[in-house]
Amino acid sequence: MKTSIKVLFTAILIIQGLSLKAQNTTGVYLNENDYKDHKLTYASNTDKIQLNEFFGGNTISVINDGKKVNLNKNEIFGYRLANQDYRFYNNVAYKVIDTVGFAIYSREKLVQDTKGYKPATQYFYSVNNKAVKELTIANLTASFPQATNFRYSLQSNFRSDADLISYDHAANQYKIKYLYLEHKRVMASN
User: Fold this and answer.
1) Where are the beta strands (DSSP E) in the chain?
2) β-bridge partners, 108
């Protein structure tokens, strides 16, 4: 009895350790299919990616097996770092926030304030992982010209572009995603 409890306890510890390592994996998504399949290249359990963002660098550096590998940002889809996915578009990294229906991204940027510059979060989106666009009512309306009820929902449910990132904690989803999925449900039933 004691032996089986020890074996069970050891197995639980091993499984928890493996899941912790898997959760903290860092690496590069070479293309969109790798991202969709969660297939990381140059994967490790340590944060060994240098983004070279200062002065608009167009490469990232990955330490793999003790060797430094440089990759062009415009030739890879994105990367995973600190348990978070990022996508590159025009050599800029965007944090992936939500991918249901269409992707929503964020990016920190310095903006002018009364006492200098301060960091502010800006939001973006893409449809089918194509061009990354600023998350605005006008841009969404232009991206979904055939989705009439979705476009009308945007106009009637959001007063400003800033409202588009509203989150419904009870439903555990962004309100814009609820409207989009409701549109898709209505279209599928017709």
Assistant:
1) 26-29, 41-44, 49-50, 59-64, 67-72, 78-81, 84-89, 92-98, 103-113, 116-126, 133-134, 167-168, 173-174
2) 121
Q: At what angle do helices 175-189 and 148-157 cross, to 10 degrees?
A: 150
**176: which residues sit within 8 A by CB, 6+ positions away?**
104, 140, 154, 158, 164, 165, 166
Tally the residues of the chain.
Answer: 190
Please give the structure tokens belonging to residue 174: 């962004």
The model carries a pTM of 0.81
C-beta separation of 39 from 29 below 8 A:
yes
Tens-digit pLDDT string for the chain (190 aa): 444 444 333 433 333 343 334 456 899 999 999 999 999 999 888 768 888 877 778 999 988 888 889 999 999 999 999 889 999 999 999 999 999 999 999 999 888 888 889 999 999 999 998 999 999 999 999 999 999 999 999 999 999 999 999 999 999 999 999 999 999 998 888 7
